[in-house]
Amino acid sequence: MTDLKSMTPEELSVYFKELGQPSFRTMQVFRWLHQGARSFDEMSNLPKALRERLKEDCLLTVPEVERKQVSKEDGTIKYLWRLFDGNCIETVLMRYKHGNTVCVSSQVGCNMGCVFCASTLGGKVRDLTPAEILDQVIFTQQDSGETISNIVMMGIGEPLDNFDNVLRFLTLVNHPDGLNIGMRHISLSTCGLIKQIDKLAPLGLQLTLSVSLHASNDETRSRLMPVNRSVGVGPLMEACRRYFETTGRRISYEYAMIDGVNDSDAQADQLAQLLQGQPGHVNLIPLNDVAESPLKPSRRVRQFQQRLERHGVTATVRRKLGGDIDASCGQLRRKHIQQQ
Ligand code: SAH
Predict the structure, then answer these.
(1) Model's pTM, two decimal places?
(2) Number of domains composing the chain
(3) So which residues are the catalytic ones?
(4) Closest listed residue to residue 282, CA positions, set 216, 230, 329, 218
């Protein structure tokens, strides 16, 4: 089955040319797809014969709302979508003063194995297609009636472990005839896959790269994040430096604060040392409790932040949204799998 929604306009135009269609079909169909058409029959300006042909040849992905939870505290909405093959993924809509932000998943599950993360507990089932990543933005917008201005790739999955599909998604969501979301309104979060960071850098995308650091030394990081066992903190920071030098974009470092594991003053000093001479920014995240994990949230977030700032490192504490609806990474999908 041809997946039209994962195609760029250039690829679509080849497809329609082969069908003997006039060239204006390309953008007609592109717009329908990106506006969230739920069937080919909806595409009222296409001839009936063409619609029938597309129905036979093409896959049109329309995720179904399997569960939807709305936070009473702050209006955050969490969607659990059922994909065409029955797999489920999560998307979160967060309302900020600067606009609505959607947090999208890039894979069904994850292979990275971070010990504090609910998304990785069952491993990776499969990669999402570009269309399935895009669908999360399109259909969150359609279901909620809210316009989305920012995207964070911080949902289930490791985006750089699905490199080609994620890049294609970025091209599509950025397209002026599609959702037209600017690269500067997109953040991509990675556990730190060095080869892929080096592959991303020369593309010069204006998005914000977030690196999940979570520790200031190899001993702690390898304990929390298996990915660190093959490539340590030193080489990772070198890759980050190269990324900044190539793109001119400051990196944002994520640091989930875990009680007694990575929250000491000595570790704050070490973290400041790592970031020396590099214009980065640290985002301290209060750890979200995951039922399956013995790790607990740190009680030293403010002290840690102040200690970093004393070293001249800018650090912000991430505001927690949707605490009443399992809004963090992978929690709702996990619960759903366990209930079945
Ligand atoms: N795989 C990517 C993106 C997905 S996770 C990555 O690793 O960056 C998005 C962010 O949430 C990452 O920084 C991740 O480490 C963090 N995270 C995962 N589980 C968490 C938890 N229980 N508490 C706080 N942050 C968590």
Answers:
(1) 0.96
(2) 2
(3) 90, 329
(4) 216
